[in-house]
Amino acid sequence: MKAVLFPTDFSKNSVNAIHYAVALLKDQPCKFYFLNVQKASSFLSDDMMVVSSSATVYKTLVDAAKTSIENIIVKLKQKFKNEEHQFFSIVDYDNFTDASSNA
């Protein structure tokens, strides 16, 4: 079984690449891992205005990334309907090189 890592920033290009790779591997059993790494500097001051006082920056960023990955997975499952494909989500709050070595 192949294991494929998709580092994603949720851009149109990264989502297109994910769809292309899943289609390319449609006849092979695969485990697809989606990696998104968040960092505090990506959290803009405007974003701070809409965060509830009980939420942390970490939780807000990670939850948003997890939701985005789940949305991609739902669309892939609907489009490709392949029982031999498994999907996993990895979200970290770090810099990319440290996060990818810990994943």
Summary?
By secondary structure, the protein is of the alpha/beta class.
At the fold tier of CATH, the topology name is: Rossmann fold
Q: How is the biggest beta sheet arranged? A: 3 strands, parallel
SSE class: alpha/beta
Rg measurement, Å: 15 Å
The strand line-up of the biggest sheet is 1-2-3
What coarse outline follows from CA principal-axis ratios?
elongated
Poorly predicted regions are none
What percent of residues adopt helix (DSSP H or I)?
A: 40-55%
Order of helices and strands: EHEHHEH
What number of structural domains do the residues give?
1
Please, could you describe this protein's structure?
The protein is α/β, with parallel strands linked by helices. The protein contains 4 helices and 3 strands; from the N terminus they run βαβααβα. The chain has one domain: HUPs (Rossmann fold, 3-Layer(aba) Sandwich), CATH 3.40.50. It has a 3-stranded parallel beta sheet with strand order 1-2-3, with helices on both faces. The longest helix has 24 residues. The protein starts with a strand and ends with a helix.
Note the topology:
Blueprint (H helix, E strand, L loop, with lengths): L1 E6 L4 H13 L5 E9 L6 H4 L8 H24 L4 E9 L2 H7 L1
Parallel strand pairs: 1-2, 2-3
